Amino acid sequence: MAWSPAHMPDQSGRTALITGASGGIGLETARVLADRGAHVLLACRNVGRGRAAAARIGGSTEVVRLDLACLDSVREAAAWVHARHERLDLLVNNAGVMFPSYRRTEDGFEAHFGVNHLGHFALTGLLLDLMTAVPGSRIVTVASLTHRAGLGAMDEGGARSSAGRRSLTAYGRSKLANLLFARELHHRLATAGAATASFAAHPGLSPTGLWQGDVPRSLRPVAAAGLRWLAQPADRAAWPALRAATDRHVPGGAYLGPSQFFESRGAPAPARSSRVSRDVAAQHRLWKLSEGLTGVRYAFPSARAGAESSGAVCPVTGARG
Predict the structure, then answer these.
(1) I want to staple 176 with a disulfide (CB 3.0 to 4.6 A). Which of 18, 150, 232, 285 is the partner?
(2) Do 106 and 97 meet the contact criterion of CB atoms below 8 Å apart?
(3) Annotated catalytic, 171?
(4) CA-CA distances (angstroms) from residue 96 to 56, 99, 118, 132?
């Protein structure tokens, strides 16, 4: 069956946090969840844009300032959420940068890797205690078709080096990290018997703000042609993440993307991924590296406590990537 938001169950009583929700796919994700009754936290670097987005969305929303390029900001955002909410049902790690004007984050990491992966790794770990006892809670990390271009070492040297940052390789490496992270997180949640499941999704091609930035000259013809013939609008590009966040029939650890034209557009379905993204040892290595670089250690419940809290509705399976 071709899934669309029309198949989404009522989200009343659920609280969702969406990063990068002031525009593009994040805005569309937040809009649909709010329309279905969820209380949505719009986590945005620019609070003014976030408030404008909240006004457009309507429903029940809040805006929290989050700059993923600064780990202090990530900690402040997590503290803000803890001070106002006792539980979190959905976390959608959507925000990202592509070919940013700055070379490194405030903490000295290569911009793509620091924002797209390390910022989300830290945020997820700092919010995890609000989720692991919540039946049906889900974490969705947005990856990309370009994860296949993610070449280069994922070590501390690579995380801090901005060499080649203006290439699709640097962006792809951060998106590969998103997939490795989502799968390792799934494994650790399942092992702990937590009530939370981890998923990954990719939007295919969509003419969002990422493509309207400072795209390197060598990539402009390819980008223009791809967006012209294969892209889908942001509202449709949000469907894979929305399905991962809400479809009870999708098992934990799944990776979803558009189903047509080389996964560039169409209804969401199981997506293909590179061999490296399924490498269990690579998933584990990235996790340990990310802990060291961010200083964030995840606190998982014990397997027995997690099983008792989740009961029969736990959507997590024990299989790895």
Answers:
(1) 150
(2) no
(3) yes
(4) 22, 10, 11, 25
